[in-house]
Each structure stands twice: as C-alpha cells, then as structure tokens.
Specification:
The complex is a heterodimer of chains A (474) and B (604).
Chain A (H helix, E strand, L loop, with lengths): L6 H4 L2 H21 L14 H20 L4 H5 L1 H18 L1 E3 L2 E7 L2 E3 L1 H17 L9 H20 L3 H6 L3 H7 L4 H19 L2 H20 L2 H25 L3 H23 L3 H28 L2 H10 L9 H13 L27 H33 L4 H25 L17 H19 L7
Antiparallel strand pairs in A: 1-2, 2-3
Chain B lengths: L7 H26 L2 H8 L1 E7 L6 E2 L5 E13 L9 H8 L3 H14 L5 E7 L1 H10 L6 E10 L6 H4 L2 E3 L2 H6 L8 E3 L2 H5 L1 H4 L4 E7 L5 E4 L15 E3 L3 H10 L5 E7 L4 E8 L12 H10 L8 H4 L9 H11 L13 E4 L2 E4 L9 H6 L3 H12 L7 H13 L22 H8 L23 H13 L2 E3 L4 E4 L12 E3 L7 H14 L13 E7 L7 E8 L6 E7 L9 H14 L5 H9 L6
Parallel strand pairs in B: 2-10
Antiparallel strand pairs in B: 1-8, 2-3, 3-4, 3-5, 6-7, 8-9, 10-16, 11-12, 11-20, 13-14, 15-17, 18-19, 19-20
Helix pairs in contact in B: 10-20, 13-15
The structure holds zinc ion (ZN).
Zinc ion (ZN) binds next to α15 of chain B.
C-alpha cells in the first residue's frame, strides 16, 4: 500500500544538514588550499574553488532530482544501472584520457568525468537488489559467488585503469555483508590475510613469525587460562629465538630456510604439547593449522613478490604500501602532510594562513590531502570537529539503515555507510600517517566534480529510500 | 520480524567510534604533544627564487657587441617570512632612512604577503658583499641575482632603446611579467622584447629558521632552468654609428644611413643623444627625469619622430611625377629670373644660368623650374579639376613612403605628413584652392612633414631607381627563425624606373658642379641633393640626401641639421663624411672633418 509523502516532513534533516555543512566546509578549505592571490574571489571559476562551487550547485540539482524521483525506480533499474556503468568504465579504458597514468576519465571540454566514481553507488544498488530477493540466504554457496562477482568484476576493471585507490574501495562492502549475516570467520580470514599480506611485504619475516606465535599463544592461554603454559611457551620462544640467532651466527645458514624449519618445528611442538596436556584438542588443532597457514601465506607472498612480479609491479606495490623511501614520492607526501597537520597546533594558524599548504609543500592539497588544510589552519579543534561531523553522519546513517522496513533499503543504507566509512578511514588515516597512501578523496569534502556528484547520488538515493520507507507498511 | 543480525550494528558503530578515538588520539599527539612538526614547518619555509635569464646580446653587423649584460643583485623580501630585525643595522648597510625602508616594506606587504618583492634593486658590489655576510640576521630577506645591461661604447642609445621595470598596468595586460621584471621600453629592446627577454626559470629552496638555504625543495623536481634570450645581430655598423654621433656632436638633428640594396639601416643617429648606460640600474629614474627636463630633448628620437619640410630635396619627386605624367620631358626648359612670379605670388630663386633643362634644374636647385612643373602637373587636362590632379599627385608622393608608416622594426615611428585634399578643402573651402595656392609644395615647403628615416628611404628609392625595401635594423636572430618576409619585399613607386635616370644625372651634377660640391669624394661618384627646411621658429634646417656610388649604390643617407641654414653648409659635408667612412673606412678630408667636429650649433 502506498501513501503520498511530504518530503519536507519526512526527510532526515540531520543527515541533510550534516551533508550541507561538510560540503560547504569542503569548499572553504579547497579555497584555502589552492588560494591564489591573483584570484582572490572564491567565485572565480578559473580556479578550483570557483569550479567546486559549480560542482556543488549541480550536486544540489542532482540531489533534488533524486528526491523527487520515486524510489521504486532504483530497485527496478538496479541491474541496468549497474551494467551501464560497468560498460562506461570499460569504455573509458579505450577512449578515456590518460591523466597521471590513469585511464579513468572522459573529457568533454573542460569537464572531466570519472565513471569509476559512479560505479560505487551502482554496485551498491546491485548488491542491495540481489541480497533483498525473497528468502535470500547469504551462506548459500551460489549466492556468495554471485556477491563476490558483483564486487570483483568492477574492482578488476578499475584496477585495469591503474586506479588502485578506487578499486580497493569495493572491499568496503565487507561491512555491509557482515551486518547482513556474513560469518565473522570469513571477515576474520579476510582481515588476517590482508594484514598478513601487507605485513609480509613491510616487515621482516622473522618478526612476523614471532609475532604470530606470541599472538596465538596469548589467545590460546586466554581460552585455557593457564599461566604456567604462557610462561613456558614464552620461555621456549626465547630459547628458540636465541638458538636460531646462534645458528645463523655460527653456521651462516640461510635466513629464510632456517626460519621456516624452526617455525614448523615450533608448530608441531605446540600441537604436541597441547595434545598431551589439554582437553580442548579441537582448539589446539585449529590454532596450529591456522598458524601454519599464516606462516605459509607469509612466505608465499614474499616469494611471489620477489620472484614472480615484475620490477615495476613491485614498485607499484611498494608505493601503495608507502614503503618507497624516495623523498619525491609517496613517503615525501606523507611526511609533508604530517608536518602541515602537526604544525597546526591546538587552534591552527587561521583561515588562509597555512604556510605548508600555501607553498605547495603538500601535494594534491585540494583532493586527496585536503585534510592537511583543515589540520594546519584549524588545528586540533577544527580537525576534531570535522571528524565529529563525519562520525555523526556515519552513525546517523547506521540508525537510518536500521529503521528501514525493506531489506533493499537497509542493505543499500549499509552500503552507503561502508563506502563512506572506508573513504573516511583511508583518506584521513593516510594524511596522518596511520594508513598507507591510497589516493581516494574525502567524501563531500575533496575537490572534484565526479566524486562530489557520485557521493551525492549515493547518499541521496538512500535519503529518498528513507523518505519512502513509510510507503511500504508491512 | 526481527532481523537475526540486528545486534551487529553495535559492532559496526563501535568500530566507527574506535576509529574516531584512534584518529583523535593521533591528532592529539601530532598537534599538541609533539613539537617536532612545528619545527619542521618552520624549516620547511620555502623560497622560490626566480632565475632571471640574461637578455640577448645585441651585435652590430660585423659581430661587434653593442650591448651585453653584467651581473647585479636585488635585495628581496617575502613579507610573511620576516621576523623582528635590527632596522637600523639594515638601513645602515643599505644607506637609506628607516622610514623609507618601512614604506618599502609596507608596499611589499600590500603587494603580496607570500610573493617576493624588491626592496632595493641593483645593489652596488660593496653593499652586496656586506649583505651576503649579514643576510642571516634578516629573516625573509634574500639576494636575487639579476643582470643589467652594459654598453661597451656610449652609443646608439636611441636605436637600442632601454630596459625598465614593468608596472602594474603593464602586468595586467601581459601576465607573463611579474613585479620586478624588466621589459624593453624603446628601440630594439622594445620591438624585439619577445626574443631578447629569454625565459624565466625558478629554483625552489628550503630555508631554515636562520634564513639559510638548507637544500633544494623536492630535490629540484619543480625547478626550471632560465633560458637566456636570443642574441641579435643588427644591421648597424658600429663604427659608422659612432662616427655619425661624433659628427653630430653639438648639433641638433639626425642621420639615417641605409643600404639601399636590402633596406638595412647602417646608422641611425638622433642628436643630441645620451649615454645609454645612464638608463641602467638604480640611477635610471633619476637620470631619466634629468634627461626629460633637458630643453634639447635628448630622449626624443628625431630620426623617427621629427617631421621637417623636405625643402629642395623634394624637387626630384615633382620632377619624377612630371616625367611620369608626361607634362615635361628631359629637355623641357623653364626660365628663371630670380624666381617664379604669377599673380601676386612670388617664389624667389638664387642666381644661376637661365633657362635650365631638367638635369641642370636639379644641379642648380632652381625654384622657378619646379613651380612650373608643379603647375603643369596640377593643371593637367587629363583631370577634371585641380583636386583630382592633386589626388593623383598625392598618390605618387605617398608611393615614396611619405605620409605613412614605413613599417620598420623600430618602435615609435611617425607617419609624417603629406597634406590631403580634405585638408585644403577645409582650410580654403571646396574648389577655392588652385595650384598657385599650394605652390610651396613644389619646392618641398608648406605642410609637408617628412621624417629623417623617410628621407633616407627616399634616398634609397633614388639609388634603386624606383623601389625600396622597408628599412629595418635587425639582420638575424641567432638560433631562431623569425618572420622577416616583409623586409624582403620590394616596394615600387608609381614612377617608371627609366624616368629616374635623368634625375640621378641631376643629383650627380649637384655634387660634381652644383649646390653641394663640398660633398665630393675622390674616386666615389656621390649623387645628392641639398635642401633647406623653412623654420618659422628660427634659423632654417639644413638637409642633404645622397647615395653612393652612383652605380650599384652601397649607401643611401639623409642628414638633417637643425638651425644650420642652407643644406650645403652642414648636412652635405656630414653626409659626405659618413659615405667616405662607410665606403673607405678612412677619412682623407681631415680638414672638413675637423671643421664639422668643431662646429657647435647649440652653444649652451
Ligand atoms: Zn632659379
């Protein structure tokens, strides 16, 4: 049964308000970031800040159109939209303009459109549509495969455009899948393998192995609650560590092999110990197998990285991980970004007073590193206020998603939360040096027409679904 | 129906809050606890130093340098980087008053807080040396290396022009330029600015709290090299130019010498002139004001901008038109009894044999002859009335380059004046003017205004028997192709080349046995013509145009000496000495030379 709904009464004003505030603050900070003394007006459309105003106004138009479109169409056309955008993203590989080594843009006059930005909401629509079918069970083998395909196909295409940042964004749907019932084990494995993958490339292997051993011993001890076991295990570890160092020192045995042998030995020793002493054998076996799998995985990644990948691929991954020490490269950017934010202090240097961003120390100040301007000019206070705005928006969206009556709306809502949260964590995390540099924008805030339009569409479809929630009384 | 996983929202919200806390903690550490970032930011002060390219060197036609560059330093300031400093100390080094320094700094702040401004341009070498030692005390200040124009010889000031700082109005129109940049303001420096200026580069340095450069920003990734301006070879003959300036010393006027075979300007002298190095460096403004106030107007480029009635040198034009129109032939003779009388008009003449034919009329510069010729041209039955005949006459005259811009590569060239029928219609009334009314045009007086450059070009036309190339001063821009097509095109007059022969004969006779015997040079056949421009404000101007040798001419020249009287007195000998200098490289007539050198027509 359907009812006529008054938008102004049913729209979530809090979300709308947060959106407007973030967009306008973004505009002011873009102005500050690329402020050009010869173009002092924020409305000067030869400059990024003037252009951003155009993007903002057009975004408002798009938002209005979405709010006045019946939300049923998003359900009906979820798949066509998904395939059309997929097609556009493929076309851009062949007909797009190459900018900064990425073939991700269509250029029409001075306007550049990046289809992969719009892919995000279309994947979200497709997932919501697929997962809201009657009697859907997430752990059904075929369903899982389909979900993975819906996510992996666009990811692969975007990877081919060399836009690693955007490609990685699609992994964010894991949050939504978790809420929809995906077993934590799958999440656990995904997280473990990602962490291990990154760690095995970043950190020396022996450190990873010892860390893994300690972690498993600690977890296991908590399960069993035996202090003596913890102590003896740690004692054994130290002993093994000393012995292995001694072997290396005395016999110059090759590092990698020696560790592998030792590790395997430890695993078997542990399993044996546990088998003999404890009742919860199942846990011990699980733990042992997992540990072994992790260690093998680490070595595999290392082997693949050094022996199979081409040097330029290695360089790309290193760059992605922020490992390159090249001052001109990624490491330099993060360092400059940290200096800019750190020098902001408690209250910041004031609007347009930032020296680090003004002098172009920070690269891509208006796009990926826009948070630097906030940190430098508005200090700790300004930064925390901005973080609060985002956190409020995210939690509000979780709340909105939960109050949906249609599975479609809820899933879509969680998809929005997932994408925004992922962007938020990666973007801000990278500017403050907590996350490797992955070039993705801060939603609603960074300079860029495609990104602002795409995030606006993403959010306002959900707002419209939320408005229409009362239409579908069950 | 309750969703079985609804509690998982708490995990997700916790995760969001957890990340928030991590971020806040991290920001708290970076922005409040750890001071090292603030220190790094100070060390991160960036200084963009513009690398100014050296302007192109200008050579004469034989590869001798007319102007080159020498290093100089400007004291610059970036207002936002300044800290409290010892004002008196800096003022002492710079030798300026503290309130002046304050004013300069205030102006710099107004211009831009982030961009460098010039505090004191072109410091002396001693000041630079002292400042280099002490610059660390003055945060935000630095020395910027520049180059200044340097002239090996104090000559060719008007030709070369000068270089000055751009002003705001100029920057607005030409965004390539930034405050403190130099630009050619006159002469070759102006017309070839695009080639001479080169391309600015930039170096970005990191500067520590002690105002010391600690290294290149981003290892020089964003630096660009300065590209020096293109060198230019001019058509000027340095020795001839220098000699001409010596001859014109203590005289007002100008000399323009052109190679008629290609339009290359060999020398262009405007006198009085000035030492070009006066308009370089810090003293430029002061010297400029001084030169501006000088009553002899040394800054005024007479060669391009002064208009004179051409006097008798114009008689050949009327002779040529007469021949072309068929109203006279070589043997047409007119008698002269101390001039020409008709109605109540009388144009006087000096004593000479009478009657004269065309060639000897030039030789003796008979006024009556040309009054008659002009009369015949304007009373030609071919045309309906005087006005129509006059229009035809004017068409011929302008085809000699008179009354229009020749289109040289020197800036500020004036058109001069050839009166129009509309002018006469307005002045006398339609159909109220007759040939007799404007008879003074026949002998090059009246409303005619011709620049020395146009006169020299006219000499080229006579030398070439009917055509000219646009006079120009640049022969070659090194390492670059520039469009000089317009200097390679022949411009023909409306006169048949064969009509020039008797005229040239006449000009030969002027020097051999006419009004300008003083201009004779052994073994060179000089063709010339004297002229006297009537000057209502004082003594008449002495004019002489010439070319040599008669066959296959190598040089065409025009000389104007203001208030020097009859053409043969000063203009003719000067032109002749110039020709001798250019063709022989050595002056044999030392007495004549001495006479000219010692003549002072200004007497200040
Ligand atoms: Zn006479």
């Amino acid at each position: 049964m359907q009812r006529n709904i008054n938008i102004s009464k049913t729209i979530d004003w809090l979300t709308l308000g947060l959106y407007l505030v973030i967009v306008l603050l973004g505009w002011l900070n873009i102005f500050a970031a690329v402020y050009n003394e010869e173009h002092r007006s924020i409305f000067d459309i030869t400059q990024q800040y003037g252009k951003q105003l155009i993007w903002i106004i057009t975004s408002f138009l798009i938002a209005t159109i979405i709010l006045f479109t019946d939300s049923i169409y998003y359900q009906i056309f979820a798949y066509p939209i998904y395939f059309i955008l997929l097609l556009l993203t493929i076309l851009v590989i062949f007909f797009g303009k190459d900018i900064n080594g990425q073939k991700a843009w269509f250029e029409i006059g001075w306007i550049r459109i990046q289809p992969s930005e719009f892919l995000k909401f279309s994947v979200n629509l497709a997932l919501a549509k697929f997962m809201s079918t009657y009697n859907f069970k997430i752990h059904n083998y075929r369903n899982l495969i389909t979900i993975i395909l819906i996510i992996v196909i666009p990811t692969a295409i975007v990877f081919m455009q060399h836009d690693t940042g955007t490609a990685i964004v699609f992994t964010s749907f894991i949050f939504m899948l978790y809420r929809e019932g995906l077993t934590p084990f799958i999440m656990f494995f995904t997280v473990i393998s990602i962490v291990l993958f990154i760690m095995s490339l970043l950190v020396q292997q022996d450190i990873i192995i010892y860390a893994l051993l300690i972690v498993s011993i600690v977890i296991f001890s908590f399960v069993n609650g035996q202090i003596t076991f913890i102590l003896s295990a740690i004692g054994a570890l130290i002993g093994i560590f000393l012995i292995s160092k001694g072997i290396v020192y005395l016999f110059h045995i090759q590092f990698l092999e020696q560790h592998f042998i030792i590790s395997v030995a430890i695993v078997f020793a542990l399993i044996g110990m546990l088998l003999g002493k404890l009742k919860k054998i199942k846990y011990a076996v699980h733990m042992g197998v997992l540990l072994l799998a992790c260690i093998t995985f680490t070595f595999m990644v290392d082997y693949i990285f050094h022996n199979i990948l081409e040097p330029h691929q290695q360089a790309r991954i290193n760059e992605l991980l922020g490992k390159s020490n090249d001052l001109k490269g990624v490491g330099y950017n993060v360092n400059q970004s940290k200096i800019a934010i750190g020098s902001g202090g408690f209250l910041g240097k004031g609007f347009l007073q930032g020296t680090q961003t003004k002098y172009n120390f920070v690269p891509e100040q208006s796009t990926d590193f826009i948070f630097c301007t906030v940190g430098e000019e508005h200090g700790f206070v300004g930064s925390v206020i901005l973080l609060l705005l985002y956190v409020s928006l995210l939690i509000r969206l979780v709340y909105l998603a939960e109050r949906q009556r249609l599975a479609f709306s809820r899933i879509y809502g969680y998809g929005v939360v997932s994408i925004l949260f992922f962007h938020f964590v990666i973007n801000i995390g990278m500017t403050i040096g907590l996350v490797p540099v992955i070039g993705i924008p801060l939603p609603f805030f960074s300079y860029g027409g495609s990104s602002l339009w795409a995030f606006t569409i993403l959010l306002f479809i959900f707002l419209k679904l939320d408005i229409d929630r009362l239409k579908y009384l069950t | 129906m309750t969703n079985p996983y609804v509690n998982r929202k708490y995990i997700i919200i916790s995760l969001i809050i957890f990340i928030f806390i991590v971020f806040v903690a991290r920001l708290f550490y970076m922005q409040i606890i750890d001071d090292s970032y603030k220190y790094s930011a100070q060390n991160n002060s960036q200084r963009r130093i513009t690398k100014y390219p050296a302007r192109g060197v200008i050579f004469d036609r034989n590869g001798k340098i007319l102007v080159y560059n020498e290093p100089a330093f400007d004291l610059m300031v970036i207002p936002i980087q300044t800290k409290a400093f010892d004002t008196t100390d800096l003022c002492k080094i710079l030798e300026i008053e503290p309130n002046i320094l304050r004013l300069i700094l205030k102006r710099a702040r107004l211009y831009s807080k982030y961009k460098p401004s010039v505090v004191i341009p072109q410091l002396s070498l001693e000041t630079t040396a002292i400042l280099k030692e002490k610059i660390y005390k003055f945060s935000g200040f630095f020395l910027q290396s520049r180059t200044l124009r340097k002239y090996p010889k104090p000559i060719a000031a008007h030709l070369l022009g000068y270089v000055g700082e751009v002003d705001e109005a100029y920057i607005k129109q030409n965004p390539y330029y930034k405050m403190g940049d130099y630009v050619g303001i006159s002469g070759i420096e102006k017309s070839y600015e695009e080639y001479l200026r080169g391309k600015k580069g930039v170096s970005i340095y990191l500067v520590d709290v002690h105002n010391k450069i600690v290294g290149n920003f981003a290892e020089g990734k964003y630096d660009t090299a300065a590209i020096p301006g293109y060198n230019i070879t001019t058509t000027i003959d340095l020795e001839l130019q220098e000699y001409g300036e010596m001859l014109m010393k203590n005289k007002k006027g100008s000399i323009v010498a052109i190679d008629p075979q290609n339009g290359e300007i060999l020398a262009l002298i405007s006198s009085p002139t000035y030492d070009p190095s006066l308009l370089v460096g810090r003293k430029r403004t002061k010297n400029y004001q001084m030169l501006l106030k000088d009553t002899l107007k040394p800054l005024f480029n007479r060669a391009l901008m002064a208009k004179y009635p051409p006097g008798s040198t114009f008689k050949m034009v009327n002779g040529l038109i007469g021949l072309q129109e068929g109203v006279i032939n070589v043997h047409s003779a007119f008698s002269c009894s101390r001039g020409f009388s008709m109605g109540n008009i009388h144009v006087g003449c000096h004593p000479h044999p009478s009657p004269l034919e065309l060639i000897s009329s030039i030789q003796h510069s008979c006024n009556a002859y040309y009054c008659n010729v002009f009369f015949k041209i304007l009373n030609n039955k071919k045309y309906k009335n005087t006005e129509e005949a006059f229009l035809k006459w004017r068409e011929y005259v302008t085809s000699f380059g008179f009354g229009q811009n020749l289109g040289t590569d020197l800036s500020y060239e004036l058109k001069g004046n050839v009166p129009t029928n509309t002018y006469y219609n307005k002045y006398f009334g339609k159909n109220r003017w007759k040939p007799l009314t404007i008879i003074s045009l026949s002998i090059g007086q009246g409303e005619l205004g011709i620049t020395p450059l146009q006169l020299a070009n006219y000499a080229c036309i006579l030398a070439n028997r009917g055509y000219y190339y646009v006079p120009h001063v640049v022969k070659e821009i090194h390492d670059v192709q520039h469009d000089n097509n317009k200097f390679l095109q022949k411009h023909r007059t409306l006169i048949d080349p064969k009509n020039f022969e008797p005229i040239v004969e006449g000009m030969e006779m002027v020097v051999k046995g006419g009004t300008a015997r003083i201009a004779q040079i052994d073994s060179i056949v000089v063709c010339g013509k004297t002229g006297t421009a009537q000057n209502p404000h004082g003594k008449d101007h002495s004019i002489f145009i010439a070319f040599a040798p008669k066959d296959n001419p190598k040089i065409a020249i025009a000389v104007v000496v203001e208030n020097a009287g009859f053409g043969a007195t000063y203009a003719a000998p000067i032109a002749s000495l110039m020709i001798e200098k250019y063709l022989k490289r050595k002056i044999k007539r030392v007495n004549l030379e001495k006479y000219i050198f010692e003549s002072d027509l200004i007497r200040r």
